[in-house]
Amino acid sequence: MTRSVAFRQVDVFTAVAFRGNPVAVILDARDLSADRMQHIANWTNLSETTFVLPASAADADYRVRIFTPRHELPFAGHPSVGTAHAMIEAGLALPRNGALAMECAAGVLPLFVEGEGAQRKIFVRAPVAHFADPELTLLVALSKALGVTIDQSPAPCNVRVGPVWTVVDLHDEAAVRGLRPDMARCAELTGEHDSVGIAVFGRSSDATLPYVVRCFCPADGIPEDPVTGSGQAAVAAYLRANQLIPDGAFAYAASQGREVGRDGIVHVRIGSDDRIDIGGHSVTCIEGTFRG
Q1: Cβ neighbours of residue 44 under 8 Å, at least 6 residues apart?
Q2: Residue 286 and residue 188: Cα distance in Å, rounded?
Q3: How far apart are CA 182 and CA 164, in angstroms?
Q4: Active site residues
Q5: Which superfamily does CATH assign the domain made up of 4-124+281-291 to?
Q6: Is there a shared CATH topology between the 4-124+281-291 domain and the 130-274 domain?
Q7: Consecutive H or E run containing 176
Q8: Which residue from 2, 134, 163, 179 has the least number of CB within 10 angstroms?
């Protein structure tokens, strides 16, 4: 049976329309099967599409299923932030003392809401990070896939923050921005190492945006993801684990998406307990009805 449901497309990690990273949000997905959700996500052809459902957990405000064009994810940052933005705008979720709780396949995660309207910033707490041991074979394969020399210290490694990201420190902004990866090799490498993509970062001379990040996910049909919440969370966890940032509570902002015309800004907060919040602004670009 076909029915009409509210639909929004939200650009996340930007206050400017047509920048950041777009997410399609189906605000009422109760009658959609998982197969239908996957078909719709493939049709929207965005890096992620979300489907909002009633919460099954007592401490959650709503449940979200997150799909790339090819499969479902346990967690992703920009869809979590964009869905919260759409739910608040539509009057379907009301923050209490600046907080919401979102249920997803990775569990119930807190969201923190700061400000109102165009000034609103929303943060999502990423799942606890888990690290794989560094592998020399991974370093060699990454060097070939990215076409650059990669240092062994700190060595690249896989970081699980819901999805698994292969994190690479290239140190310098110019090296990151100048990358021209071999996408076929990147897809093969991520498949072999069970990661969703490769998150590469370096340092910037801009004190307001001290880190530059790029994320490549060709095996998922996304050669370069514009602005990536879970990838940024994996980078933040890697920075903390390798003692590349100070101990204790720490915050910074990172640039991502300039190379694909998106130019987003991700705000990262790391607590003294090493928990990571990823957030930023969002702006709704499309509002209408979805027949599904």
Answers
A1: 24, 69
A2: 35
A3: 20
A4: 48
A5: Diaminopimelate Epimerase; Chain A, domain 1 (3.10.310.10)
A6: yes
A7: helix 173-177
A8: 2
Please give the backbone phi and psi of residue 26, each rounded to the nearest 5 degrees, phi first. Answer: -95, 115
Specify the pLDDT at position 85: 98
CATH class (in words) of the domain with range 130-274: alpha beta
Stretches where the chain sits below pLDDT 50 are 1
- Which of 17, 45, 11, 43 minimizes the C-alpha distance to 222? 45
The tokens describing 86, both together, are 């759409």
Q: Which pLDDT score is estimated for 190?
A: 96
The kind and range of the H/E element at 229 are helix 229-241
To 5 degrees, how large is the angle CA 9–CA 12–CA 15? 105
Rounded distance between C-alpha atoms, residue 22 and residue 284, angstroms: 9
CA distance 198 to 190: 7
pLDDT at 14: 98
Query: Domain spans of the chain?
Result: 4-124+281-291, 130-274
